[in-house]
Every structure is written in structure tokens, then in C-alpha cells.
Design brief:
The structure is a homodimer of 385-residue chains. Chain A is α/β, with parallel strands linked by helices and 385 residues long. Helices cover 40% and strands 18% of the residues of chain A. Chain A has eleven helices and twelve strands. In chain A, helix 1 (8-23) packs across helix 3, helix 2 (31-38) packs across helix 3 and helix 9 packs across helix 10 (325-339). Chain A is globular. Chains A and B meet through helix 1 and helix 9 of A and helix 1 and helix 9 of B. Chain A binds a DNA duplex (30 and 30 nucleotides) through helix 1 and helix 3.
Chain lengths: 385, 385
Amino acid sequence: MATTGTDPARMREMNQLTIVWALRGNPPSTVTELAGRTGLSRPAVDVLVQQLVAEGWAEVEEPGASSTVGRPARRYRFRAGAGHVLGIDVGVHKILVMLSDLEGNLVQSLRRPADPEAGPDDRLATVDRCVDEVLREAGMTAADIWAVTVGVTGPVDASGRTSLFTPLPGWNAVDPVAHLTERFGCPVQVENDCKLAAVAERWKGVAQDADDIVYVLAGIRTGAGLIIDGTLRRGHGGAAGEIGALKAVRWLDAPGHLAGCPGVPSTAAQGEAAAWVFRAAREGDRAARTAVRRYARDLAVGVAALTLTLDPQVVVYGGGFSRSADVVLPMLRQELTKHCLRLPELRASTLGDESVALGALRLALDEIDDRLLGGRLAAPAAPRV
Amino acid sequence: MATTGTDPARMREMNQLTIVWALRGNPPSTVTELAGRTGLSRPAVDVLVQQLVAEGWAEVEEPGASSTVGRPARRYRFRAGAGHVLGIDVGVHKILVMLSDLEGNLVQSLRRPADPEAGPDDRLATVDRCVDEVLREAGMTAADIWAVTVGVTGPVDASGRTSLFTPLPGWNAVDPVAHLTERFGCPVQVENDCKLAAVAERWKGVAQDADDIVYVLAGIRTGAGLIIDGTLRRGHGGAAGEIGALKAVRWLDAPGHLAGCPGVPSTAAQGEAAAWVFRAAREGDRAARTAVRRYARDLAVGVAALTLTLDPQVVVYGGGFSRSADVVLPMLRQELTKHCLRLPELRASTLGDESVALGALRLALDEIDDRLLGGRLAAPAAPRV
DNA sequence: CGGAGTTAGTAAACTGCCTAGCATTATCCA
DNA sequence: TGGATAATGCTAGGCAGTTTACTAACTCCG
């Protein structure tokens, strides 16, 4: 344990951060409320909160019409608009950019289709244009952004590169962190899409109550993201959750059962074929149900491997196929029962395809919190790398 | 973030704990050394350390012959003997009890063979007798023990019971936590043997430098324990690492390749058969090498599933077969290469069959540290449940 | 309309902790 | 024996948070 000694100055910093955390995510609060929430005395909170206001971290709401007896209290509010973060989902088919304030409130977002065949420079240029547009519509510049997180498919190493593999054409040749850092100057991180989606499910999705989560991204591609003890786990080389690479786990072929189902209109694209099969299965079509069952059977082996390894509380079923969770989950549950010692809860994601960008926002916000924790709490300003 | 406000009293507690940690695991230290180590000022350390001495947590070593110029410094030492903990390995074939002081120094240990067929009450009675003997030889009573951790095979739930399954005959019927708590009154925990062995490898074994560790217990039984981000991971229901339950992972059958190897003396017991095969393989015996290769192939599927899921830094190969790591590891490495995206380091355990009891000691010590962190630092005394 | 009751804001006294600086003490070496 | 060195011990000063008491602002009700 590398605990280091604490002096009064450090104590004050800690208490100031405590106030920040007590303010954030709560409605405008009175000094008395904050004192109760933090365990500090009222005078102490008063001094601290006034300093926060002076520094620009909080703002005062002068008392208005009071509904209760007694002198109406001044209310203090975290100045969420002091800084903003970007969450970017760089997908094969689309780019999704989200801009939020420091409380995670969505300020602006933009979705643009992307050419699946587009090269890395093209794709990066599209990202740049989307970011430009989002900033412009929000009336901001790059200097207003405090942190950026980007989600891409494929395992991402510590430097933000997808050196092992990625379905994004040529993407392993680019260095998105360097590109965006040059532009923003603030902390930039790149992360795997499944991992970000897992973070989003714990933040705003169906797994807010859980600390041990396996997120399964089910779609044309299949992947997984892991949250253990409330923290996103990347693994030593950033490749945690890549159970699909195991040959005994037939994740690569699993969606093929859907595309190859007899009766699928031959004109349908791959994604539409799956949707057709799920719909047919829902209506009781024999062949479609068989196809879904085969899909579930293959999916279950990988999910079981993850579940047996980690024994999570919740498995979240997300990704493009999660809209058809009503068809898949019962079958998946049945298959998992055969493999698992202890069946975790199975829940279907409700965040849709915004989960990656949302998770990116959350990670960017976490980055800022980490900086606050480490450094001294100074006047609000974008951290620089 | 549920951070709570800090006042000067809490600050003092924290600083006192900081001193405790700086004392422990170091040779007797001067005030100046402690000040440097903790970042506190010399007078502050002086006051704190004197209070620790008064409370019984530390003791003074009066200056002896000084080797350098200047006034010789008083040295302070953590009073590791203020309390003791027990680590107990309840195996199928043996009971191993270890008694250590608060610094983890072994004070007494005892190994007794156990009847593999013995019922749970018999086994528990043997444990009791071993504990009695260890305490007696160390000149202690149950009241001197501050924490007890017990290792058993099979997944252990939060209450310390092996409700899912266990190779210990009838063991799921007993409640060892209740039994030992009644006897000791101090915190008692029961944990899975593989998990404890993993902890031991990080504490005193071959993985001291790693934070993300997969420990594989290889022997007649095969199992795994996981350390992620420096912390033992139990999973939500205590069944993390039980990848062997997956049918596609042939861990149950894997040792069979060794027992079934042509040429094994028919008189050999199961454990001896494996040892014979490893020895023969080391000497170049064709059939033995094939058997070991098959064993490695089956083992590798499970290790690959764990590795792909967690992307650890190190895989530790432990258990009874780890003495033959020189034969197995190269083959295992070769097989893993076929499955994994990023091959972790493979290391052979050197702790032998003491790893479970050692890990139990470590967990018991951790329990005490947790109590210290939470409560106020009072005079040294056994925590009571 | 004004006083009682309630709640918020503020000031002062007190306690506790850490730091800085200086005097004191003990040992070694010339 | 005296100077250099390094550790201990002590005192003053500053800072943070708590407690207590007092003032300010507002509502309710007679």
C-alpha cells in the first residue's frame, strides 16, 4: 500500500472534491443539504462552496419563491457547462459523435453514414467533418473540449491502435490518438466498441445496479466487454473479452445460421436477413426458429466461457440483434443452462446503437475525474496532455 | 463516488495508518526514514510513532553501536507479534495449517495426511486437532488469533459453503465458517483453493510483479484462480474461474491422457502415474511425449478461454504437475499460440503444495488490514465478528 | 400588521494537525 | 579535547474544521 501522508492542504482539496461530487448529479443544493450529504459542518461547506463559486466550478442560484417556512436558502449548482467532452463511435457503417457537458448531459449529437469500404484516411476525415459540425452547431471550438474518447471495433492497445486486427479497412495503419491530440490538445483515448457499450449499460442502461457485467455485442459481428467490480477491464494488452477468437467458440460463424436460413429473401443484405429471420421466428416459422436456435447455441458457448470465467451478476445482450431479444434470449437462456454452473441474469440492452458513443462519453468524463483527483483542483480549464 | 468529508481527526488516523504501513515489511526504521517514506514531516512522524508505541502497535529499538557519525537514531519496528493469523488448507489428501504473525512471517506449521474418503465431520475434527497442535506448539490460544482463512476445493459462495459441488466427500453439508467462528470469534473466511494459490503466487511466488494473473492449478484436478488489477476476483457468486465446467473445455478428461499412457506401471496410483509419464517424457519416451502433448492440448483450450477473456500479463502453472513444468510448459505454450491473440507469459509455480495455505494466510492478513482501514486504529486486539 | 417560529448565513473561539526553525544531545574523528 | 555530523526535542506559527452563538430573512397566524 503506497499511501502517502496527508496534510491540511490535501485535506482541503479532498473536501473540495467531496463537495464537487455532492453537487454534481444532484439538483441545486443548499449548504445544509450539502453538509448532510458530505458529513462536513455547515460553516466548512459554506467556505468550500464559496471558493468553488469563485473558481468557476459552481454557481449560485439566488433564493426565489420559497415554499416552506424560514429564510429561503441560496442554492448552489455544479457548473456542468464549464467544460465539455466528446464521445465518438467510429463504426463500419456510421459515425456517431456526441457532445456532453461535465454532468454527461447531451448537448449535441450527429450521426453520419460511412462507406464500409472507406479507407482509414477517408474515415478519419469524415470523423473530422462530423466533429467540426457538432462543435459549430454547439457554438464551440476545440479549446472547449476537455476530453475525447473514440470507440472502434477490434482490440485496442494502450496506445490506442488496433494492432492485432480490426474490421475497419486499413485502420490499423492510422494513429487516431495522435491525430485527435494534435487537434484538441486534451486527453484523447481510443477504446474498443464492445467495452464502451458495456460502460454505457452500467451508466445509463440496463445494468446500472450491477458491478460485475458481461456485455455481449450481438450483430453481424459478435464481441464482448467486461466490467468487473464496477470497472471496465481492458486486460494487460487491451484484448480482454476477445473470447470469439477461440475456435471452439463459434462466434464468427454464428450469424451465418441466420443468413443461411431457408426462406430468406435473396435480395436481403446481411443485416436485413437477420432481421427477417428474427421476425419470422417470432411469428412461429419453423425454419427460422431452427436457425435462431442454432445461432443461440453457438452464441451460448462463448457466453458460457465468459460467464464461467467471471461469474458475473448480469449478462447484457446488446448490439444490432438486441432488438430481437424477445426471440433470442429465451433460447440463449436455455442453452446457457446446459453449460453454466450458476446462470447470471440475462438482460436485453435498451440503448440501441448509441451505446458505444454513450460509453465513450462516460470514459471521457472519467478521464476528467481522474485528473481532478490527482492534480489540485484549480480553476476549470481543459486538461492538456 | 461516495467520498465523505475529512476532518483533522480522520486525517490523523490516516497518517497513523500510513506510518503502520511504512513500518511493516521494512527493517526497523528511524523517524527520519519514515518521514521520507511517508512524505510527512519529522515532528509529525515522531508524535505518531510514539503514540503507536504507546498503543502497542510498534516497539522501540534503543540505539546500539552506530556505524556512522552523529547521534545514533532510535529505530522503530512494527510489532508483528501483536497478533497472529491462521491459514488452513483442507485438501482431499492432507490438512496443512500455517500460523503467521501480522507481517506474514511463518511462526508454526503442521501437515497431516487426511483420509480421502473421510466424511465432513471427521475432516473437520482433523482440522480442529491440527489447529490445536499448532496453537499449543506456538504457545498460544484461540484468543491470540485475529483472523482465519480456510481453503477448500470447489467453488465457495459468500457464506463460505461449497453449495455447487466439491470433491471433499459430504463437505457441502457442513458450515466451516460457523464452526470456526464459534471457536475463534474472529473473522473467518473460506475460499476456493485455486483462488488462494493465485493469491500466494502474487504474494510470495512467481507473479509478484504482475497485476493481472491467471493461475492454473494442474494436477489430478484442474482449476483456476484469477487476479485482476491486483485483486482476487471471486465473481458474483464465488464461481469465477470455473471454466473447467464447460464441456468444450476438456479439463475433466485431460489428466486421463496421462493415466492412460501405454507403459505406465499398472501398480501406480493416479498421481504416481502422471509423475511416471512426465519423467518418461522428459527422457524422450515417444508414447509419454504423446500423452503429455494430448494433455497439454486439452489443458490449453481452457487456458486459452481464460486468457482470451482476461488478457492477463502472466499465466502461472501450479499444482501437483508444476514440478514437471519443464516438460509441459513448452507444449502448452505451443498449443496456446494456436488459440490466443496475444500470448501471456507462462511461468511455473515454485511454491509447491504450500501455495493454498500461504494464500490463506495472505487473505487473513488482508482481512485485518481492511478492518484497520475501516475502523479507528485502537490498541492491538483481535477483531471480533 | 406585528410577533412567534423556523431556517439560512456569519463571526468568533477552540481544538487539532502539520511545518519551520532552532536548541540540544550523542557519537565519531582528528 | 574540540569540532563536525546527525539525530532528537521543543516552540512558535499557520491552516482547516468544529462548535457555539448571534444575526438576517422569511412564513404563519393571531
